[in-house]
Design goal:
It is found in: Cell membrane. The chain is mostly helical and 401 residues long. The protein has a domain of 251 residues: Rhopdopsin 7-helix transmembrane proteins. The protein is 77% helix and 3% strand. α4 packs antiparallel against α5 and α5 runs antiparallel to α6.
């Protein structure tokens, strides 16, 4: 006969329950490992680590190393170009240098450690102390890059819509203060884990930024969501100004043709008049054409600014939005102790964000003829007379217009 009292006593003991739970977890890990022989588990955090073959490690390492190298080269070219070329050495380009320095820092002090961690399947191998330092560098550099993109969008908007009243583009000290503010805000996100507000997660083989709910909301909002909203608003305002200018230009262009036809007819009828009357008519036509050229220049500048900022905002959103959505949702889904997100997904989205640092120097070069010319000269090691060649190209382009 079945002894129910013994069953009730054994089932009610905490030791028995603990043994059952631990045995179930071990059985679960064994089942998963047998289903996927390439999976390893970090039992302290429950994360599934990846176990790559040698060929996979070589392939992944080469891809990530190429991304890092291109990021270093591209952003180094930006810094050298602005420092060497007199035409580019203006306060409005100081922001480009700040952006390049932030992206270059990501490539030099962050990406190599991420590559090593990825090639070990996601296992952190550099200890707890350096884990905190690494997270601080990562957050600081990435936030500075994102915040600089935000300030660049505001600078472009004010430079286009208020060219006479916006002094920062001609004031190097004011621009330097703006850059200092960018890095100060970045530091405000980096320092809390060092000051006791939120503690980074470091267990055996895991290095993860603090999953504290308040810190997560604060850091993701300041580092990404607010800058993204500002950039979208600036793009909308520039796009709206460009459309308004385009409509005005088309109206003026039709009016100009009518007036020129009328002036031509009047000139034919006034062939018998005195030369001063003809000279006044020519002067009026000259002033009209000068205003039209100026309107066309403003229109083209606004169109270029709208296109450039649109590409920047688009690339920025594609690169960083998935990662920050994941980062914001993770503590609410997984808790504050560790991450339950698959490592492969986390690493893919992280490198997608890092790709923004790779693309930034080439986006600006695509829309800036002076940067393109300087890149070509620097890559060809044509350092001598680089300023003279760039000035000659500018004069040639001006004559074509």
């Amino acid at each position: 006969m079945f002894n129910t009292s013994r069953f009730d006593t054994s089932f009610g003991s905490s030791e028995y329950v603990s043994e059952v739970i631990n045995g179930s977890l071990r059985l679960f890990y064994n089942i998963v490992a047998s289903a996927d022989p390439t999976a390893m588990w970090n039992e302290s955090c429950g994360e599934q680590l990846l176990d790559f073959t040698t060929a996979e490690k070589i392939f992944i390492g080469m891809i990530l190393a190429i991304m890092t190298t291109v990021t270093v080269i591209g952003n180094t070219l930006v810094v050298i170009a602005v420092c060497v070329v007199k035409k580019l050495r203006q306060p409005s380009n100081y922001l480009l240098v700040s952006l390049a320095v932030a992206d270059l820092s990501v490539a030099i002090v962050v990406m190599p450690f991420v590559i090593v961690t990825d090639l070990t399947g996601g296992k952190w191998m550099f200890g707890e102390v350096f884990c905190n330092i690494f997270i601080g560098m990562d957050v600081m550099c990435c936030t500075a890059s994102i915040m600089t993109l935000c300030v660049i969008s505001v600078d472009r908007y004010l430079g286009i819509t208020r060219p006479l009243t916006y002094p920062a583009r001609q004031n190097g000290q004011l621009m330097a203060k703006m850059i200092f503010g960018v890095w100060l805000v970045s530091a405000s996100i980096t320092l809390p884990p060092f000051c006791g507000w939120a503690k980074n997660v470091h267990t055996a083989g895991v290095c993860l930024i603090s999953q504290d709910f308040g810190y997560t909301i604060y850091s993701t909002a300041v580092a990404f969501y607010i800058p993204m909203l500002v950039m979208l608003f600036m793009y909308y305002k520039i796009f709206k100004a460009a459309r308004k200018s385009g409509a005005k230009h088309r109206f003026t262009d039709l009016s100009r043709r009518d007036r020129l036809e009328q002036a031509a007819n009047e000139t034919l009828r006034m062939q018998g008049l005195k030369p001063p009357g003809v000279a006044e008519e020519c002067a009026a036509l000259s002033r009209l054409l000068s205003r039209e050229r100026q309107n066309m220049s403003i229109f083209k500048r606004e169109q270029k600014a709208a296109t450039t900022l649109g590409v920047i905002v688009g690339v920025f959103s594609v690169c960083w939005l998935p990662f920050f959505i994941l980062s914001t949702a993770r503590p609410f889904i997984c808790g504050v102790e560790c991450s339950c997100v698959p490592i492969w997904l986390e690493r893919v989205l992280l490198w997608l964000g890092y790709a923004n640092s790779l693309m930034n120097p080439f986006i600006y070069a695509f829309f800036n003829r002076d940067l393109r010319s300087t890149y070509r000269d620097l890559l060809r090691c044509r350092y001598r007379n680089i300023n003279r060649r760039l000035s000659a190209v500018g004069v040639h382009e001006a004559l074509k217009v």
